[in-house]
């Protein structure tokens, strides 16, 4: 697809959905995330959409950003996870957890887990997912009986996390208890993404048109399912969509419209945010906390939602008096007059794993307002962006360690790639060294520096990676010999060895290995366990590996057994 056509598709998708992540755009358009980020930067500059951390938001509403509806200003703030006093965090992926929370734990920053358990948490603030799901399923079963519908044919749009699995399991159990005639047509992970939920629902209803009940583990998933039903022109009276969350205005409005969404499980982000703040203050003061704060829940319908929420203008507000009277709150909350007798943190951090989810928009708004009454600032942290920054930092550390190995008088051969760029920057301070490189970026950084003899391999430039490849470059390396090669690759496994994606770059890497007395592999932990398309060399070709400490000890031990010296940064 040509760039112009791809840009039109991106704008169309973003305008339709208000917010779309880089990952989803990459998957839909079948191009790399790097290409999508470059496209978004160009489209943002052309004022055709709003580029946001992790994705893009629409500009289509009256010149004022529809983006602000889906990605509020709080999300534009970029904070370091170690620059807060207490962290409110949601687990999305063990990789994220280890990478982001490793430094937090080392700095003794208390962690308040929200929605799902986290390593080293002080407490967990969450709804009882199984019980809430069962209550919702019980309501759905009774509703089907009242409507005279004999069989519930269920599409379960779930997710891979333990809390969302509990929601799905509870819903199915509650549904069967109230309506024994249930057929589970399909249970499938929607990846907690709008577009995935839309496509899965569209495909499922096309193949199984008898589906008449859809359970969605959160609002963004339900919204995708609802729009798929609309596009397929499924009659609302023949479909029941049940959402777990009622996180913001979108599904509350949909519920009140009396269409596909017949009921929703309200888990009250307003209450969860207040509990998170109070728990954060207690943790900051070293006070004992329970293992878990259980957030109340209630099943709401078109008739009962106005009992708990009042619409003011374009937004729904929680009726706090009703909440206090009818719900079991986990702590005594004096919302209007917080106590001033206790020491409070200056900054509370909130990790936001899904910018497009209304749960996090509502949670952020409420957290900011309530914390502000104590004089506490809220710093929101985009999980995707923070992970990218953390990986980038580790690459810089790997490069610094590699540069420390270069001695005066040595000839070093440097491959291309992100770590190679940082290595070149570190080598700018060196004197009396010779650098051979096929990287245009490395060459440009080290060009015209006194004390560095610079040799280019020549060859044809690959635009995407800015490295020189081809017979000319490979031929030059036959005439050159380096003391050390600093090599980069896309993947490494014990069985397949070193691997890369592009054949022209693979052959130049192989020529580099043949030209070097010592091969030093520079790879952050993300390269391990990955097999790219083409083998560069077996692991035995590597003498030394410089990597970061996120690589598991078992992997480090296996590499050491292969005779590779592993150097950690």
Concise description?
This protein has 569 residues and is an alpha/beta fold.
Write a structural description:
- It contains 20 helices and 29 strands.
- By secondary structure, the protein is an alpha/beta fold.
- The protein folds into four domains: 3-67, Arc Repressor Mutant, subunit A (Orthogonal Bundle); 76-126 and 270-295 and 330-382, Rossmann fold (3-Layer(aba) Sandwich), CATH 3.40.50; 129-266, Response regulator (Rossmann fold, 3-Layer(aba) Sandwich); 405-568, Translation initiation factor eif-2b, domain 2 (Rossmann fold), CATH 3.40.50.
- Strands 20-19-18-23-26-28-29 form a seven-stranded parallel beta sheet, sandwiched between helices.
- Helix 6 packs parallel to helix 7.
- 46% of the residues are buried.
Key words describing this protein structure:
Rossmann fold, about 40% helix, about 575 residues, six-stranded parallel β-sheet, 20 helices
CATH architectural grouping of the largest domain: 3-Layer(aba) Sandwich
Alpha plus pi helix count: 20
Q: Report the helical percentage.
A: 40-55%
Tertiary shape: elongated
User: Structural class of the secondary elements?
Assistant: alpha/beta
Tally of separate domains: 4
Average per-residue pLDDT, rounded, comes to 87
Strand % is 15-25%
Largest sheet: 7 strands, parallel
Uncertain segments are 61-77
* Distance from first to last alpha carbon: 41 Å
Strand order of the largest sheet: 20-19-18-23-26-28-29
CATH topology of the largest domain: Rossmann fold
CATH class of the largest domain: Alpha Beta
Total beta-strand segments: 29
Radius of gyration: 27 Å
CATH superfamily of the largest domain: Translation initiation factor eif-2b, domain 2
């Amino acid at each position: 697809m040509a760039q112009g056509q791809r840009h039109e598709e991106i704008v169309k998708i973003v305008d339709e959905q208000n917010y779309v992540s880089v990952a989803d755009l990459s998957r839909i358009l079948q191009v790399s995330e790097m290409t999508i980020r470059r496209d978004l930067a160009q489209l943002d500059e052309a004022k055709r959409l709003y580029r946001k951390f992790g994705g893009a938001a629409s500009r289509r509403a009256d010149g004022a950003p529809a983006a602000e509806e889906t990605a509020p200003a709080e999300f534009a703030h970029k904070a370091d996870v170690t620059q807060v006093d207490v962290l409110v965090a949601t687990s999305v992926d063990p990789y994220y957890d280890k990478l982001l929370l490793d430094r937090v734990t080392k700095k003794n920053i208390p962690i308040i887990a929200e929605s799902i358990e986290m390593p080293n948490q002080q407490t967990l603030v969450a709804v009882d997912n199984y019980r809430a799901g069962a209550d919702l399923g019980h309501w759905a079963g009774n509703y089907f009986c009242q409507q005279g519908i004999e069989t519930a044919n269920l599409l379960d749009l779930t997710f891979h996390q333990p809390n969302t699995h509990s929601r799905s399991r509870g819903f199915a159990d509650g549904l069967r208890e109230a309506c024994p005639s249930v057929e589970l047509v399909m249970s499938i992970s929607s990846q907690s993404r709008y577009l995935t939920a839309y496509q899965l629902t569209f495909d499922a209803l096309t193949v199984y048109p008898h589906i008449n009940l859809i359970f969605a583990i959160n609002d963004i998933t339900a919204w995708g399912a609802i729009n798929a039903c609309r596009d397929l022109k499924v009659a609302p009276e023949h479909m029941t969509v049940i959402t777990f969350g009622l996180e913001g205005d979108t599904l509350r409005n949909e519920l009140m419209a009396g269409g596909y969404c017949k009921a929703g499980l309200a888990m009250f982000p307003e209450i969860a945010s207040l509990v998170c703040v109070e728990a954060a203050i207690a943790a900051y003061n070293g006070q004992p906390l329970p293992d878990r704060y259980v957030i109340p829940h209630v099943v709401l319908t078109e008739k009962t939602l106005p009992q708990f929420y009042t619409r003011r203008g374009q937004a729904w507000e929680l009726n706090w008096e009703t909440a206090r009277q009818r719900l079991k709150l986990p702590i005594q909350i004096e919302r209007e007059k917080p106590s001033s007798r206790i020491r409070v943190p200056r900054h509370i951090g909130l990790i936001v794993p899904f910018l497009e989810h209304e749960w996090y928009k509502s949670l952020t708004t409420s957290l900011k307002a309530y914390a502000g009454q104590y004089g506490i600032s809220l710093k929101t942290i985009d999980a995707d962006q923070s992970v990218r920054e953390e990986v980038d930092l580790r690459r810089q550390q790997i490069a610094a360690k590699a540069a420390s190995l270069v001695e005066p008088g040595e000839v070093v051969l440097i491959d291309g790639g992100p770590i190679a760029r940082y290595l070149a920057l570190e080598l700018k301070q060196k004197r009396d060294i010779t650098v051979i490189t096929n990287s245009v970026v490395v060459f440009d950084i080290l060009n015209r520096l006194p004390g560095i003899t610079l040799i280019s391999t020549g060859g044809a430039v690959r635009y995407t990676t800015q490295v020189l490849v081809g017979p000319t470059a490979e031929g030059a390396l036959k005439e050159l010999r380096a003391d050390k090669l600093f090599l980069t690759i896309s993947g490494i496994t014990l069985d397949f060895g070193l691997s890369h994606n592009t054949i022209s770059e693979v052959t130049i890497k192989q020529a580099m290995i043949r030209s070097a007395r010592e091969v030093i592999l520079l790879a952050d932990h993300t390269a391990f366990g990955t097999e790219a398309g083409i083998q560069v060399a077996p692991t035995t070709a590597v003498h030394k590996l410089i990597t970061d400490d996120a690589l598991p000890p078992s992997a480090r031990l296996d590499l050491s057994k292969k005779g590779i010296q592993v150097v950690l940064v």
